[in-house]
C-alpha cells in the first residue's frame, strides 16, 4: 500500500472493515522499479501510474490480506476497471513490528492506473505519500462519484 490505505492515512480503516484479522501488516517496503506517483484531482488523491522506469522507487507498506479483504480492497480500488492490480517486486525493509531487517525481495500486488493522460507525467512526482505532510488545502478529500461526478476527465483523454 502506498497511498490512502496505509496506516495513519484517511482510508486505512478499509483494510479492517471486514474484521480485524483480514489484514496483517508485514513491514515497510520499496518497489525495485521506479514508478510515477502523484497527487492530483480536486480531491488530492494519490495515483500510481503503471509506467515502470519513470519517477521513484515507491515507499509503502506490505500487507497480507485474506480473500474477503482482498476482494473488498479490489472493489474499493475499482479493480480491474479503474485501478489495475499487478505483480511487482518490492524490497522489504522492516518486519511487522517496524524493526529494521536485512532487506529481501518479494513479489506482491500493487494497484495503479494503466491508462492515463500523458500530461499527468508532467506533474510533481513523489516517492512516499503522507497526507499529513500537505498543507490543509492539498490534503485528501473523500470522493463520492454520485456527489462529485466522474474523475475520468482528470485522468483519461478519451472520457
From TrEMBL:
One of its GO terms (cellular component) is cytosol. One of its GO terms (molecular function) is gamma-glutamylaminecyclotransferase activity. Residues 2-111 form the Gamma-glutamylcyclotransferase AIG2-like domain. It comes from the Eukaryota. SUPFAM superfamilies: Gamma-glutamyl cyclotransferase-like (SSF110857). Gene3D superfamilies: Gamma-glutamyl cyclotransferase-like (3.10.490.10). The active site is at residue 77. InterPro entries: AIG2-like_dom (IPR009288), GGACT (IPR039126), GGCT-like (IPR013024), GGCT-like_sf (IPR036568). Belongs to the gamma-glutamylcyclotransferase family. PANTHER family: GAMMA-GLUTAMYLAMINECYCLOTRANSFERASE, TROPONIN C-AKIN-1 PROTEIN. This is Gamma-glutamylcyclotransferase family protein. It comes from Biomphalaria pfeifferi (Bloodfluke planorb).
Amino acid at each position: 500500500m502506498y497511498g490512502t490505505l496505509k496506516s495513519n492515512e484517511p482510508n486505512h480503516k478499509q483494510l479492517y472493515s471486514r474484521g480485524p484479522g483480514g489484514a496483517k501488516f508485514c513491514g515497510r517496503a520499496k518497489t525495485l522499479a521506479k514508478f510515477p506517483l502523484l497527487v492530483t484531482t480536486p480531491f488530492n488523491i494519490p495515483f500510481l501510474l503503471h509506467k515502470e522506469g519513470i519517477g521513484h522507487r515507491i515507499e509503502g507498506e506490505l500487507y497480507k490480506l485474506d480473500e474477503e479483504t482482498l476482494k473488498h480492497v479490489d472493489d474499493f480500488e475499482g479493480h480491474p476497471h479503474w485501478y489495475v492490480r499487478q505483480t511487482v517486486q518490492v524490497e522489504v525493509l522492516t518486519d511487522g513490528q517496524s524493526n529494521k531487517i536485512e532487506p529481501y525481495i518479494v513479489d506482491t500486488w500493487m494497484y495503479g492506473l494503466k491508462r492515463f493522460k500523458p500530461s499527468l507525467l508532467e506533474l510533481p512526482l513523489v516517492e512516499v505519500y503522507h497526507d499529513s505532510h500537505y498543507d490543509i488545502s492539498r490534503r485528501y478529500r473523500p470522493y463520492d462519484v454520485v456527489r462529485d461526478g466522474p474523475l475520468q476527465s482528470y485522468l483519461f483523454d478519451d472520457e
